[in-house]
Amino acid sequence: MDAFRIRGGAPLVGEVRVRGAKNSVLKLMAVALLAEGRTTITNVPDIMDVDTMGQLIGRLGATVAFDRAAGRLDIDVPAELEQRADYDLVRQMRASISVLGPLIARLGVADIALPGGDAIGSRGLDMHLAGLELMGAKVTSQHGYVLASAPERLRGANIWLDFPSVGATETLLMAAVTADGTTVVDNAAREPEIVDICRMLVAMGAGIDGIGTSTLIVTGVPELSPTTHHVVPDRIVAGTWAVGAAITQGDVWIRDAVSSHLDIALGKLTAAGAEVSTESDGFRVRMGDRPASVDIVTLPYPGFATDLQPQFIALNAVAGGVSMVTENLFESRFKFVNELVRLGADVRIEGHHALVTGRERLSGAPVVATDIRAGASLVLAGLVAEGETIVSEVHHIDRGYDSFIPDLQRLGADIERIPTPADGGSPLG
Ligand code: EPU
Fold first, then answer.
1. Which of 27, 53, 163 to mutate to test the pocket of ligand 1 (most atoms within 8 A of CB)?
2. pLDDT digits (tens, 9 = 90+) for 292-327
3. Using CA atoms, how far apart are residues 276 and 246, in angstroms rounded to an integer?
């Protein structure tokens, strides 16, 4: 297993390009299953989760060719698909659940391993399953698998989500596009990745109104046809680079990114003292001085993204002042803070609030990445910590960040990938 060795102190300066969003492309690969024939997806990041999803849809019967350099996926989908998503892949990546909607839509049956909890929280599936039941599916769970079946075609329904869940909105969209009649999903999630999925579905022939709003109206069609689709840029990766520029008091142009997807986060960076300027293909973040602390409250889009919360805790850890960070989506998303404290951060957790007192400096130490965004946060903290920081378990970071180390090196960071040293991590509980 690999680790990253970072020697802190250098500001990030230069230009970086962002590829397509992990949290879109993984679902788009599942969407491809809805139509027999060849679907092509471009602007695909070269990340581990794309390989895992490729294996999963491969086992379901698709043939997947990934041209990593070109960022292009060709997915050939046969007339017949398998119905089962096994635990060995689902446990590696929760997004595996996104094959549930396409399988039940195409086969009338799906047999998916339950993903269980993970490092950031318990993460239920109740809203996915209740929505499918309203559409006429029967859902049972046995031996760690959920079995959904709809021998008759799924039928349109009015579905009100208790919470604008990204995953449940996606499952229900994918199930509804070929259902009999009209489905209304109310209190739907509005993330740019959901909009991206809707656009691809519409290009395949689906009838969806209200795209980008919290009420999605889906008129079922008998079948969809394959398409070619360019993935929306990864706003969380772009936001991570933006915090990287601010925390290191650097100056970074973030290209191929959509600044309007990051309005609140960039507003927070401005409040922290950064200069943010926007162009049509991206934005620039410059920070001339020590950042000021900023309060954060995570919420579903267009609120502040939970996937940027750990990076902003790192920023607040070296900022001037005291800040309150409130996490409303995942109950365990502060777990990584113990690792940040090993780097000298002063963070106190009270339930879903973190009180961060900025320190003049952090001090390098061995730390362990516990999930993708926690890993990114520890790398950012390492970039400004005195001396050497070793971040181990970086396979988590590889799941979601394309070309992270080469890009950081190009921007001037002193960072390299190394084999995990024997004493390279703190013990896991
Ligand atoms: N929830 C339920 N029941 C459900 C569905 C969700 O209780 O049926 C709860 C979850 O337990 C959680 C909250 O609702 O507390 C939000 O979950 P949501 O369904 O919105 O999230 P998700 O689809 O599981 C996606 C991203 C996450 C991102 C969240 C929120 C993917 C693969 N994952 O997860 O991304 O944090 O939306 O924006 O799209 C990451 O990339 O690091 C990551 C964790």
1. 163
2. 999 999 999 999 999 999 999 999 999 999 999 999
3. 10
391 lines ligand 1 (CB under 6 A): no
Flag whether 427 is in a domain: no
Domain that includes residue 368, residue range? 2-18+233-419
344 within domain boundaries = yes
157/175 same-domain check: yes
Geometric angle at alpha carbon 155, from 154 and 159, rounded to 5°: 110
- The answer to whether residue 228 is domain-embedded is no
Instruction: Out of 118, 186, 295, 346, pick the active-site residue.
Output: 118
Which of 222, 244, 269 delimits the end of a domain?
A: 222
Q: Is 416 left (phi over 0), alpha (psi -120 to 50) or beta?
A: beta
Asked whether the predicted pLDDT for residue 429 surpasses 80, the reply is no
47-96 pLDDT, tens digit each: 999 999 999 999 999 999 999 999 999 999 999 999 999 999 999 898 99
331 lines ligand 1 (CB under 6 A): no
- Whether 251 sits among the annotated catalytic residues: the reply is no
Q: Please indicate, yes or no, whether the overall pTM of this predicted structure exceeds 0.85.
A: yes
According to DSSP, the residues that pair with 216 across neighbouring strands are 185
Q: 425 in a domain, yes or no? A: no
Tell whether 237 and 212 lie within a shared domain.
no
Residues 44 and 155 in one domain: yes
196-251 pLDDT, tens digit per residue, is 999 999 999 999 999 999 999 999 999 999 999 999 999 999 999 999 999 999 99
Where among 194, 222, 250 does a domain terminate? 222
| Residues whose CB falls within 8 Å of the CB of residue 270, separated by 6 or more in sequence, listed in order | 276
286 Cα: distance to centroid of ligand 1 (angstroms): 31
CA distances (Å), 225 to each of 31, 127, 155, 222, 348, in order?
11, 28, 20, 10, 52
Which residue bears the tokens 């990030």?
Answer: 12
Do 245 and 257 belong together in one domain?
yes
95, 166: one domain: yes
Is residue 121 in contact with ligand 1, taking CB distance under 6 Å?
yes
